[in-house]
């Protein structure tokens, strides 16, 4: 074990010495030309001078390399890393420090400090620069004026009138889902997640993209390529020597990355080609302007007006394709698990659905605001099992928290919800939707299920309405049972169940039966 630690330490030290040599060469270039040629990862090794005192650090830091020696363990089980870091952060009073070589990362679990950091720090963490080989300057990876302009242009595609126009799609897909799981009635436990994944992808294609669903083979290839590429990014983050280009190529990682990106881009290309064919065959309507167009219609029309380039269309489609179905399907997987383990909550939900909708009626736009407890169930599910378990940002200016000031030139890792998963001795860990109905308990500021601050999820309203429709159809037909005692979780950019998340279903009898 000692020899292993020494080898890792030596590699990290070699990396830092190599970068320092590069830094001196680039300083000479800066002196001669006035232009700073250092790459982003090189600049990270010389952060701004630490002016303000630091909070206590996560235990286990070594001189010079900090916590880098833990990289192997962390990259293989990122959820455990999040869990350890957030629990230690809670013990330290809500703020602690993680050191990756000379980089300072503030870890934050205190809700008030989390909101302050998210509102003050808008630029994404450098790990999102790794993702640019895949998603370019999409709204998920870009910063500054590019992000502001693109976000403003795309916001109308996720407005309430547009999403209300998808209700027929949401209802028909929900009914398709409950029919597909019908064979499992009374057959014991089964893994419901693949059915939600497939159904939500079809919903995304039919609604947001306005196309027929692509083949299952293409869909499966996309998912597997995405998972493999994300694993590559995780290794690159913690095994810092892989951030040196020639090592990345020498080890074969670059070749793997290129092939995976090619696979992912091929599906995006297929989606765009199918959409263009669909638009060519559409009958012209009297609708004018861009205010209430669905996502891909809006993108293509903006492209025709010269606002978006072909490359930008692909990049924006890529981010919605990546985030638009797995997040909602995974959250519904967790919601079913929680309802199965809490029959009292499930019964209360069922009674509200019967009162508002009856046993079989589709949801209309006027029903959505009446489903108050249904909304609370989804918010509570997102609190206990947040789809996106961390928010990663750059600290570009000094930011004052309650007890500390984050130094400019550092980074922050915001855990607004993770402690709720692990803090078993606290009331906050209980699955209790009523907390969202009590005026003095939780507020909208406490809810961070779709991120915090201005960079929150653009598709929040779409996701909530889609999940509400599917949940309403599912619970009105089936009684769900589950046992969470064996649940195992993993995380990359999304929190996921690994095992112990299976449910069983029984057909409900209608009140008239």
From TrEMBL:
It is a peripheral membrane protein. Transmembrane segments: none annotated. Residues 1-21 form the signal peptide. Pfam families: p450. Heme binds at residue 457. GO terms for cellular component: endoplasmic reticulum membrane. It is found in: Endoplasmic reticulum membrane; Microsome membrane. PROSITE patterns: CYTOCHROME_P450 (PS00086). May be involved in the metabolism of insect hormones and in the breakdown of synthetic insecticides. Belongs to the cytochrome P450 family. This is Cytochrome P450. It comes from Helicoverpa armigera (Cotton bollworm). The lineage of its organism: Eukaryota, Metazoa, Ecdysozoa, Arthropoda, Hexapoda.
């Amino acid at each position: 074990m000692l020899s292993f630690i020494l080898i890792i330490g030596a590699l990290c030290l070699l990396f830092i010495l190599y970068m320092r040599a590069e830094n001196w060469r680039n300083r000479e270039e800066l002196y001669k030309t006035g232009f700073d040629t250092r790459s982003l990862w090189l600049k990270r090794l010389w952060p701004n001078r630490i002016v303000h005192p630091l909070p206590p650090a996560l235990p286990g830091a070594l001189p010079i390399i900090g916590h880098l020696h833990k990289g192997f363990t962390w990259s293989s089980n990122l959820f455990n890393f999040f869990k350890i870091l957030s629990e230690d952060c809670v013990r330290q009073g809500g703020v602690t420090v993680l050191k990756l070589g000379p980089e300072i990362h503030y870890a934050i679990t205190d809700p008030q400090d989390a909101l302050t950091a998210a509102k003050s720090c808008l630029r994404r963490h450098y790990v999102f620069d790794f993702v640019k080989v895949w998603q370019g300057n999409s709204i998920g990876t870009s910063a500054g004026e590019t992000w502001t302009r693109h976000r403003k242009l795309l916001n109308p595609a996720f407005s309430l009138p547009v999403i209300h126009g998808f209700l027929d799609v949401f209802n028909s897909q929900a009914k398709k889902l409950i029919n597909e799981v019908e064979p499992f009635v009374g057959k014991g436990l089964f893994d419901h997640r693949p059915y939600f994944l497939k159904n939500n992808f079809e919903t995304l294609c039919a609604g947001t993209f306005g196309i027929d669903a692509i083949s299952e083979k293409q869909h499966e290839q996309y998912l597997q390529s995405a998972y493999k590429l994300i694993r590559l990014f995780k290794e690159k983050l913690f095994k810092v020597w892989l951030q040196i280009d020639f090592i990345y190529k020498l080890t074969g990682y670059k070749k793997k990355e290129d092939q995976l990106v090619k696979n992912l881009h091929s599906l995006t290309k297929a989606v765009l080609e199918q959409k263009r064919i669909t638009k060519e065959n559409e009958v012209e309507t009297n609708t004018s302007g861009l205010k209430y167009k669905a996502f891909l219609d809006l993108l293509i029309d903006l492209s025709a007006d010269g606002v978006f380039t072909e490359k930008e269309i692909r990049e924006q489609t890529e981010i919605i394709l990546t985030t638009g179905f797995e997040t909602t399907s995974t959250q519904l997987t967790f919601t079913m698990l929680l309802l199965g383990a809490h029959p009292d909550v499930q019964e209360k939900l069922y009674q509200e659905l019967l009162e508002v909708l009856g046993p079989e009626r589709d949801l209309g736009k006027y029903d959505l605001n009446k489903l108050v407890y249904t909304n609370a169930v989804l918010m509570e599910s997102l609190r206990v099992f947040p789809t996106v378990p961390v928010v990663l940002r750059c600290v570009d200016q000094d930011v004052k928290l309650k007890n500390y000031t984050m130094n400019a030139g550092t980074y922050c890792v915001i855990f607004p919800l993770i402690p709720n998963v692990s803090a078993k001795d606290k009331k906050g860990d209980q699955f209790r939707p009523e907390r969202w109905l009590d005026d003095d308990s939780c507020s909208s500021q406490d809810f961070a299920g779709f991120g915090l601050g201005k960079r929150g999820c653009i598709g929040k309203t779409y996701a909530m309405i889609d999940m509400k429709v599917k949940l309403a159809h599912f619970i009105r037909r089936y009684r769900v049972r589950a046992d969470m005692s064996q649940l195992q979780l993993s995380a990359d950019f999304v929190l996921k169940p690994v095992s112990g998340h299976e449910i069983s279903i029984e057909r409900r009898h209608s009140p008239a039966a």
